[in-house]
Write a structure and sequence with these properties.
The protein contains six helices and four strands, in the order βαβααβαααβ. It has helices at about 25-40, 50-60, 80-90, 100-115, 120-140, 150-155; strands at about 5-10, 45-50, 95, 155. The strands form two sheets. It has a two-stranded parallel sheet with strand order 1-2. A two-stranded parallel ribbon has the order 3-4. Strand 1 (about 5-10), helix 1 (about 25-40) and strand 2 form a beta-alpha-beta unit.
Length: about 160
């Protein structure tokens, strides 16, 4: 179905992630390798995943890596970019972070970046932080009587948990 277009496989290494890959995984990889050759002028395939597992993915089939001609490794976001992403997520959903919350979250992101490992997913970290902030905010304001629009939209340091 991807002929004439593109196929994106996220976490592609899951096809081959253990040494005893089941027959479905092996068959999938064989078919993918064949399609990359047979439809090279009519199919774009993008595989994505963490660097180390993707290296194993490409090593799992001798002809696989040679069928891909471009490899891009994305750097992790820095602290400023993480805060910017979080602020945008809040703004897109009619929330605002207090100045104190921004300072605390900046420190939190710094700590998380300092202890990261090779599977660190800082984009996902921001989404999870956002989800927690919104949930904690909702718990904090649910019983407030005569709440203002500003209070309904302001995420404070009290919502960090």
């Amino acid at each position: 179905r991807s002929k004439g277009g593109g196929l994106f496989i996220d976490e592609a290494y899951s096809i081959t992630e253990n040494e005893h890959t089941d027959s479905f995984g092996r068959e999938c990889l064989t078919e993918l390798t064949k399609a990359l050759e047979d439809y090279r002028d009519d199919l774009i395939v993008i595989v994505a995943g963490y660097t180390k597992p993707m290296e194993k993915f490409f090593e799992s089939n001798p002809g696989l890596k040679s069928r891909f001609n471009t490899f891009i490794e994305f750097e992790n976001y820095n602290v400023e970019e993480l805060i910017e992403i979080l602020i945008r997520m809040c703004k897109n959903n009619d929330y605002k972070l207090s100045d104190e919350a921004i300072v605390e979250l900046t420190n939190y992101f710094k700590r998380e970046i300092d202890k990261k490992d090779e599977n660190f997913a800082n984009g996902r970290l921001v989404r999870n932080v956002y989800d927690n902030l919104v949930m904690n905010h909702a718990r904090r304001v649910v019983d407030v009587v005569n709440i203002s629009n500003e209070e309904l939209s302001l995420i404070t340091i009290n919502d960090i948990g």
